[in-house]
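User: My notes are a mess, but here's the protein and guanosine-5'-triphosphate's SMILES. Can you give me a structure?
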Amino acid sequence: MIIGTAGHVDHGKTALVRALTGVDTDRLKEEKARGISIDLGFAYMPAPDGGVLGFVDVPGHEKFIHNMLAGAGGIDFVLLVVAADDGIMPQTREHVAIVDLLGVERGVVVLTKIDLAAVERREALKAEIADALAGTALVGLDVVSVSTVSGEGIDALRARLFAEALVATPRPVSKRFRLAVDRSFSLTGVGTVVTGTVLSGAVAVGDHVKVSPSGISARVRSIHAQNRPAERGEAGERCALNLTGDGIDKNAVHRGDVVLDAGLHAPTDRIDATLRLLPSEPTVTQWFPTRLHHAAAEAGARVVLLADRPIAPGAEARVQLVLERPIAAAAGDRFVLRDTSAQRTIGGGRFINLHAPARKRRTLERLKQLDALATTDPNEALIALCECAPYYVDLTAFTRDRALATDHVEHLAVELGLVRIALQNTFAAMSQATWAVLKAGVVSKLTAFHADNPDLPGVGMERLRLQLQPRLPAPLFAAALQNLAQVKDVALDGAWVRLPSHEIRLTAAEEAIWQKVRHLIAGEERFRPPRVRDIAGLTGIGEAKVRHLFKLASRIGKVDEVARDHFFLRSTVAEMADIAADLAAEAPNGFTAAEFRDQLDNGRKVTIQILEFFDRHSVTLRRGDLRRINKHRRYLFRRPDEELSDTSEHGRESSLVGRPDFKSGKGREPVFGGFDSHSLPPISRSKR
Ligand SMILES: Nc1nc2c(ncn2[C@@H]2O[C@H](COP(=O)(O)OP(=O)(O)OP(=O)(O)O)[C@@H](O)[C@H]2O)c(=O)[nH]1
Ligand SMILES: [Mg+2]
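Assistant: No problem, the inputs look usable. Here's the predicted complex:
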């Protein structure tokens, strides 16, 4: 248990800690000279049960409230010190407000210097104290009387603290590790040491951690927990960590930094929160400037109102805090706001959402989502989030922002029956109900589309996405379709989505003509195949018939219409895309049409048409005379070697496709299926 002092300057906080523990926490020369505490002091006291009580002694002077806040962020139990001669003073009230805003509910009021006050005075003070605590979480705290001069009441208070430590609820060790740094220094022969309270989780010698928000990596070489050498430090303990690593020295880590599990490092400067304004404070209006205190950190921050009205004195409201610099925080953490001249405490509350949007922050949907995010219990929060727009949860961010153990949420998702969708580095989750709606939407849109367009291979993925509710972001939608494809609810052909049952076949007559014309556009002349009219002339088949056949063939992915009436085999297009990619790989600024023409050994006009075809599909990006490859669209003409589909099943034939190394010709050996099993959406529809 970490015990913190609170109370007005000179009321006897430091003297009390010394009387309890024997440790004088006022160590600074200036503290000695001025007779007041300036910075935090730390002391430890062994308990009879073998444990150790930690003490954080804070300064009472109004100038050093920022130091008091840095210490109060990590305490479990407060000793609210009131001098019997002085009674309730301004910083008594301010410290009470701060401790209340930080959510500390346990403690005792210690009436000190009773040697200086008559018994009647003490009794009168008790009423004043009760009055000062009214309306806070500290209401009704016991008042104990002590004198550090006579020693009266000290032993009883110490015994009380031992007893309190036994019934203290431990902080969650199951969460991931966070330690709020309040000191960083260098010890000869040891190196860089940082100290602070472990806010959650545990750390062990040898662990790799990060310093946030800077992001510097470090290894934990040794640990002192509650002032004793230890292999592990746990939530609720004050720890000193000896850190090593590139870039780690005492100047690289500061008070306010958080040493944490590397996976939790995600600094933020825009946070949605609940804010409770102190009754004594004036109304808070839009873009109100403040000083934010969180754990041991502080930063300038503006308050953005999420409701229509300014926040009235004593009221609580949702706000967005826009910070001057990023901090390392967790959802659910408490914070305190002070005025910018550091004279008054304004209010405080809890962080709800660590990565708040800068736009559309007040829409009804957003506010509903905030309600869900504000739920403390992770199970309930996940369920609530799945039930409001956008109807999915980024599980990885959810887990990280609450510092939950990764496996905890995995179990949770299973327990709650959520559908999990794997994205590149993250997992998303949605409810079974949403998944069912999405799936039904996909199937019904595809069914309708196939009925209306029996000759078309399917719907473009993007077009389908825009027709559906809930509308998922493109990468998530693509991943969701992959999930559906795995269980064969849909089939994916390149950028096209279709029902597995849907297929386009050439009729026997069409197939016969196709066999005749196919070889004309393959082989040596594949980069400059004859056009529709030429083929009609060569074969004696009517021009309209040839054109119709090619249109059909393009829909089922055998050919692409590179220019009007000019069809290339799909495999040839893939080959040309490879050639362009190889050229681009050797020319970082881009390649010219002439260089491309030389590789194809083509005429200038057809070369330009091919490149313009790639431009239209955004496979190439043109700037002036140079072109680069757009790696995000490259998949459109890539032959996925691993997808060797059963071509006969869909009425598609195998074709000469290789992964050509155009310089050596190696890799042009025929393989089955491949790119030809993939169709490209019609140009007009494929633009995203
Ligand atoms: N008579 C009497 N004097 C006390 C008692 N406790 C503290 N004092 C005196 O009060 C003065 C202030 O005590 P501190 O413990 O430094 O007060 P503090 O609350 O730590 O002050 P800051 O840290 O500056 O806010 C010192 O001169 C102490 O000797 C007490 O029980 N009786
Ligand atoms: Mg002091």
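Residues 13-14, 26, 37, 57, 59 surround magnesium ion (ligand 2) (CB under 6 Å).
User: Great, I'll file this with my notes.
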